[in-house]
Amino acid sequence: MLSELHVRQFALIDDVQLELGDGMTVFSGETGAGKSMLVDALGAAFGARASSDWVRHGADKAEVSVVLQNIQANVRNLLAEHDIEGDGELVLRRVIRADGSSRAWINGSPVAARLLQDIGRLLLDMHGQHEHQSLMRAEFQRQLLDARIPDKQKQAVVVAWQQWQKTRKALDSLLSERQRGVREEAWMREEHKRLAALELQAGLVDKLQQKIEAGRHFAQIQTAVAGALETLEDGEGDLRGKIAACARELESVAAFHPQISAATDYLAQVDVLLGETSPSLRSVLDGGFDAEALQADETHLMDLHEAMRRNETDEEGLSTLFAELEDKLNHLDTGAWDEEARREAFKTATEGFCTQAKALSQARNKAGRKLITELRGFLDKLALGGMQLRIDVVAQTEDDATWSMHGFDETVFMAASNPGEPFRELTAVASGGEMSRLVLALKGCGAMASAPQIAIFDEVDAGIGGETAWCVGELLAEMGRVRQVLVISHLPQVATCAKRQIHIYKEQRDGRTVSGLKPLDDTARLKEIARMLGDAGDESLAHAEQMLARGAACVETNRVETNRAEANPAKVS
What we know:
Layout: E1 2-10, E2 13-19, E3 24-28, H1 35-45, E4 61-68, H2 73-81, E5 90-97, E6 102-106, E7 109-111, H3 113-123, E8 124-127, H4 138-146, H5 151-197, H6 204-216, H7 218-233, H8 239-251, H9 258-286, H10 291-310, H11 315-381, E9 388-395, E10 409-416, E11 424-425, H12 426-429, H13 432-444, E12 454-457, H14 466-479, E13 484-488, H15 492-496, E14 500-509, E15 512-519, H16 522-533, H17 538-567
Parallel strand pairs: 3-13, 3-14, 8-12, 12-13
Antiparallel strand pairs: 1-2, 1-4, 4-5, 5-6, 6-7, 9-10, 10-11, 14-15
Helix pairs in contact: 5-11, 6-10, 7-9, 8-9, 11-13, 13-14, 14-17, 16-17
């Protein structure tokens, strides 16, 4: 609820501070007194685009602040997202400078004006200012119908849509991955084939290098090995024979000295090692030179270094790359099976969503026809008898880009000014006053239960009078039972139905024109109603007194109904 309004240096307003209450409050005053400035000031507080025209002539800035009480949960959640405390009182403040720039605060914390707009969309419904009018938004028109549909049916659409989204993302991800893979597949297969031919293994470079060195020095190796074998084994002076003779000489005295015993052990070990050495060298000597093998090893090593250069990695990195390529190619080879399964899951989810969305579409059509029937009686009372309405619920079955958790419908309120005229979108046909009265008609048949908690009506009584004006006033007062309703009106019938009345006036002060706001007590209100009737004579005063009595009865009825609703909330729809 909007509990306080403070406006300084705003257009013709010098400095006004106003306390407001629940129910319906009416603002009245002579033409040109500044009623539209009040609407602009409230718009500024809720983030409307700043204008330098708002700043009072001669001032460097204008300032508007509002205090809100009993903040609803969705607003508290929004504030929490921006780390702003808002459980109790909420203060919105906007400063507009003469150059058109502005700054905004919430509970003393600087914020972007966009956040004020977001709060305004949740809390405020300004009728007569088209950019704020809920009824002109397609989303709100859909909500009017959905409020008449069981939650279970709407939730079924949400679940089906979530499953459809999940399967679509899974399929899109696979197709995207495969598309990238297809573009790279030729390279991957060629590189995998090259790496496979290298027969990669740990230490392959060192092994190849050793084999190549042995091949290149084959002649040197053969000469050295032959000489070594001759020294070890050939002729009378072979090395093994001399070591064996040495060992025999020492064995006869080994028992007499420990060091001689150790020496004979060493000689025995040498003989064993020499025995292993000769066969190893002989196998080298017996091997022939293989020029083709040497060339193959050199080519293998060259290809290995080329692969490392080409892939900008080392020997270990090549092995890792080979394993990765093998895995990706296997995935591509089996991707067709995965795609088939995901396409089938997506198809099933699409059919499931369409089934639920179609049922919701049918329910909306039914709810729309019933709502139009219920509206007819209220439209007649509100001087909108000539207006023809229909609600088009168009299922966008072919355009899945428009599908959402709310189904696939495009909901549009259509209107014709008079019977026989072509139907066009409501926003193109209805004037501000007609739109405001249509809101009252929707409220009258219970279709506005989810509307914002603060409603401001500026053009609601344009072009009406008599009993129609009384009907408008009574419906506004009834709306005030569950919402805070602020009405700018020039009709006494509407004004007398309000719980309180505030007079907007204009006066000359120090050679300047100033607009002000003044709450009216009973006496002042009687005079204001008489003025709204045309003059302040005795006859007008008597008529005003009768009208106030009728309006008071309306206020009292709403008070009783409100108390009953608070005492028995379960019985109130």
